[in-house]
Amino acid sequence: MSKRGTLTDNDADISDINISPMIDMVFILLIFFIVTTVFVEEPGVEVNREYANTAAQIEKNSLLFALTPDGSVYYGGNDIGVVGVRGIVRRINPEGAMPIIIQADRGSPAHVLVRVIDEAKLASPAARVNISTQHQ
Description:
This protein starts with 8 loop residues before the first helix and ends with a strand. α3 (83-92) packs parallel to α4. The chain has helices at residues 9-15, 20-36, 83-92, 110-123; strands spanning 51-52, 63-67, 73-75, 78-79, 100-104, 129-131, 134-135. The chain is an alpha/beta fold. The chain has a domain at 51-135: Nucleotidyltransferase, domain 5 (2-Layer Sandwich).
């Protein structure tokens, strides 16, 4: 300070706070949380699942397909049919790392359920295919 109560250009430079490193850190944390977040793709339709006494929880990171009473197969809110199952499993889960869960309605045809399981196994032989039930 050259005069009492007034700032010179040198004094103003010293009092600035550099927040760039803090902003960088916040962006790095944001990217980390986005990358590590598990996104679950819901099938997009409600089904009345059958009850089972041996029902168990399965990990959240999985492929979910829904089978309706009229035999339609849904994934992500879209009616993909039985023929669409193989392509989705092959694209998303080629090594079989994620379990495949089929939410079959009580009134869904058994032959369509068997075809969906078969298509999933043909696309990824190492995948675990499960049928979703309700616990009593």
